[in-house]
């Protein structure tokens, strides 16, 4: 491990990707993620990598598909409206069974929305990215260090399960600076992917990377096989952090920047005699159902905190099988809830007056 | 006590070295000393973590804040108000918080004529722990880019080395050599080293400037 340096979340994403062996970046600028692309444009030429600013998000994601099909570690980065434009390409990536890393540094929506932080793309990331039966693994870091660690993990799991992986960040996490330790650069063997269309050199049958299947039975068979892989991801890759959950009367569920705010609110509640706790999903897909279901065995009340009108809250209700009340507190449009606002909601759920 | 010598002070440097937090501290201390102080947020590059975000607190303390027309809004439009020119020409005490790197310094060139006249103190802020400027050579390289774009020469170095909440006395003390090297390479004087208020150093060097941490995330605010 190297010495600690201060990095913005966005810069850390870029440097961590390079350390993880990514040498191909295709993107198009959009606030508040532009530092990822700007950083890559400076660094990629120095490590014999490719940085290419495409003419649009649509072009970027299709370049990502092409590079992924050739078996190399590849990524793109954008913010909310940009992901909408990339939707079709992401579906093609999933349908082609190739790994790729997609970064969404979320901003307020819908429409052109704004440039301040938001978490209103939860549905888009976890449920309705684009057409067809498919999933992405979705990571939600809450510190700059965790962002670095999850970028490496995202590439590894993408390769392992041959599927697209998203890091769902937000403007606050992308723009803020924290001390980080960067991992040692990793050597990646790009020739190790047997399925990659990277030149057969007359040594093997040629590989085809494709998502078009005219015969419905063939397509159904492929989708079902893919879902067997998804089931394995759901069983083995759930990640969540628990904070003061064991004796809690109210457990907050929050990810990313909201989890930072919620943790401060939990500390305030504890100081004032309310037994609050926090479950912080680190993977949003697969959703950490197991951690939440286990907590629901003894925790009477849940509160979901999001920078949206309430999107993850449904997954929490499903995880507790609607056996416990799950309330919601959120701000949206680029507003960030303050710890005191969340604390007030905890007090209200605890029966008022504090 | 504030360490400013000129009527107009320009605070520039690499992204994320702590220019905004330093500018806010300088402005508050000037106001505390009874100066009629104007803080100009000239960052047209980065819409987050900027002086204009602290307008309410600064105004209450007696600091006049001028920012880009659409700062604090959802618009990413780099437009600067005419009042900036007036302030540089006539302000009693003016602090300019410039955007990071040469990209951020571009806006300064607009005021080239007014600044030539004002003969400002141009402070180049360095932080040994800031990624991409952790060596004296890197810090000096970015200074050259900033000076060329801004059409201004730096007049002094501010060692603002810190690691955010992990900053200890040792963090600051082990940055002295780095700052000395930057001064040596540039021929510029070390104007001061910042130290968070309340942190005591075992190896003090002069001059030190005590600062408070104002630039924080929403979950780091006091409650």
Characterize the structure shown:
The complex is a heterodimer of chains A (354) and B (223). With 354 residues, chain A is of the alpha/beta class. Chain A has two domains: 5-236, Thiamin diphosphate (ThDP)-binding fold, Pyr/PP domains (Rossmann fold, 3-Layer(aba) Sandwich); 241-349, Rossmann fold, CATH 3.40.50.920. Chain A is built from twelve helices and 14 strands. In chain A, the strands form three sheets. A seven-stranded mixed beta sheet of chain A has the order 3-2-4-5-7-6-12, with helices on both faces. In chain A, α4 (80-95) links the parallel β4 (74-78) and β5 (100-106). In chain A, α1 crosses α2 (34-43). Chain B has eight helices and eight strands. Chain B has an eight-stranded parallel beta sheet with strand order 3-2-4-1-5-6-7-8, sandwiched between helices. Chain B has a single domain, classed as Rossmann fold (3-Layer(aba) Sandwich), CATH 3.40.50. Chain B is an alpha/beta fold and 223 residues long.
Summarize the model shown:
Chain A has twelve helices and 14 strands. Chain A is an alpha/beta fold.
The proportion of residues forming helix of chain A, as a percent range, comes to: 25-40%
Give the beta-strand count of chain A: 14
The backbone outline of chain B, from C-alpha atoms, is: globular
Order of helices and strands of chain A: EHEHEHEHEHEHEHEHEEHEEHEHEH
Task: Please give the most extensive interface between any two protein chains, plus how many residues each contributes.
Answer: A-B, 34 and 24 residues
Give the proportion of residues in helices of chain B: 25-40%
Number of strands of chain B: 8
Helical/strand content category of chain B: alpha/beta
CATH names the topology of the largest domain in chain A as Rossmann fold
- Assigned CATH superfamily of chain B: P-loop containing nucleotide triphosphate hydrolases
Strand content of chain B: 15-25%
Shape of chain A: globular
The Cα radius of gyration of chain A reads 21 Å
Report the portion of residues of chain A in β strands. 15-25%
The biggest beta sheet of chain A reads: 7 strands, mixed
Overall mean pLDDT of chain A stands at 96
CATH architecture title of the largest domain in chain A: 3-Layer(aba) Sandwich
CATH superfamily of the largest domain in chain A: Thiamin diphosphate (ThDP)-binding fold, Pyr/PP domains
Level-1 CATH class name of the largest domain in chain A: Alpha Beta
Low-confidence stretches of chain A: none
């Amino acid at each position: 491990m190297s010495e600690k340096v201060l990095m913005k979340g966005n810069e850390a994403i870029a440097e961590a990707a390079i350390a993880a062996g990514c040498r191909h970046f295709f993107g198009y600028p959009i606030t508040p993620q532009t530092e990822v692309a700007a950083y890559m444009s400076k660094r990629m030429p120095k490590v014999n990598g490719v940085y290419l600013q495409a003419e649009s998000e649509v072009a970027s994601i299709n370049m990502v598909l092409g590079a992924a099909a050739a078996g190399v570690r590849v990524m793109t980065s954008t913010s909310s409206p940009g992901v909408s434009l990339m939707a079709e390409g992401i579906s093609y990536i999933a349908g082609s069974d190739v790994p790729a890393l997609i970064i969404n540094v979320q901003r307020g929506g819908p429409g052109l929305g704004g440039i301040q932080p938001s978490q209103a793309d939860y549905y888009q990331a976890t449920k309705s990215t684009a057409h067809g039966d498919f999933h992405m693994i979705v990571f939600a870091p809450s510190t700059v260090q965790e962002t670095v660690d999850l970028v490496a993990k995202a590439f590894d799991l993408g390769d392992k399960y041959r599927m697209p992986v998203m890091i769902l960040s937000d403007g606050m996490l992308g723009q803020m600076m924290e001390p980080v330790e960067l991992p040692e650069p990793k050597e990646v063997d790009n020739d190790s992917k047997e399925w990659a269309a990277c030149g057969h050199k007359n040594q093997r049958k040629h590989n085809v990377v494709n998502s078009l299947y005219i015969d419905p039975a063939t397509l159904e068979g492929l989708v079902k096989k893919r879902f067997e892989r998804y089931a394995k991801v759901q069983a083995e890759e759930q990640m969540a952090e628990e904070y003061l959950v064991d004796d809690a009367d109210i457990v907050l569920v929050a990810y990313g920047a909201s989890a930072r705010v919620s943790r401060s609110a939990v500390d305030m509640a504890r100081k004032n005699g309310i037994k609050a706790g926090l479950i912080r999903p680190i993977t949003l897909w697969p959703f950490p159902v197991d951690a939440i279901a286990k907590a629901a065995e003894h925790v009477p009340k849940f509160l979901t905190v999001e920078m949206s009108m309430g999107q993850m809250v449904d997954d929490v209700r499903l995880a507790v099988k609607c056996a416990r009340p799950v309330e919601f507190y959120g701000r949206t449009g680029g507003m960030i809830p303050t710890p005191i606002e969340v604390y007030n909601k905890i007090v209200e759920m605890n029966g008022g007056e504090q | 006590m504030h360490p400013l010598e000129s009527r107009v002070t320009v605070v520039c440097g690499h992204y994320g070295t702590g220019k905004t937090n330093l500018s806010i501290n300088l402005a508050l201390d000037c106001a505390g000393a009874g100066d009629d102080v104007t803080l100009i947020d000239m960052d047209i590059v980065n819409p987050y973590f900027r002086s204009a975000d602290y307008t309410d607190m600064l105004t209450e303390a007696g600091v006049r804040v001028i920012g880009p027309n659409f700062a604090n809004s959802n618009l990413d439009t780099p437009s600067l108000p005419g009042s900036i020119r007036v302030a540089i020409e006539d302000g009693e005490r003016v602090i300019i918080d410039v955007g990071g790197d040469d990209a951020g310094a571009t806006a300064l060139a607009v005021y080239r004529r007014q600044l030539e006249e004002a003969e400002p103190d141009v402070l180049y802020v360095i932080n040994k722990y800031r990624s991409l400027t952790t060596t004296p050579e890197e810090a000096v390289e970015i200074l050259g880019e900033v000076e060329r774009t801004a059409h201004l020469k730096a007049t002094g170095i501010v060692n603002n080395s810190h690691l955010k909440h992990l900053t200890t006395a040792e963090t600051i003390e082990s940055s002295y050599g780095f700052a000395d090297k930057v001064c040596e390479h540039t021929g510029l004087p070390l104007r001061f080293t910042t130290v968070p208020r309340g942190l005591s150093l075992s190896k003090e060097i002069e001059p030190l400037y005590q600062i408070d941490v104002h630039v924080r995330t929403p979950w780091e605010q006091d409650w």
